[in-house]
What does this fold into?
Amino acid sequence: MLAGMKTLATMVTERGQVSIPAEIRKKMKLKPGQRILWELTPDGECRITPAPVRRPQGACAMLGYASTFRRTRRTQEWMDELRGGEEA
It folds into this structure.
């Protein structure tokens, strides 16, 4: 353990899920939806590290690029537009 680092505890749920304490999330700059890597060390400790962000390649990269040409709309806007044809 790092010098000066206090011990923080969380529980494992029935589904094997754990929460990362807010203090650690902030120090590691973890964001919702971000992937983390789990590594079991030979001495029985577990190390977690943020997974590198993978940028899409080829055609998949173009899908993200194309979205920059149109604005994002909320679901309700789409539904209003779709239902507008029903009233005519």
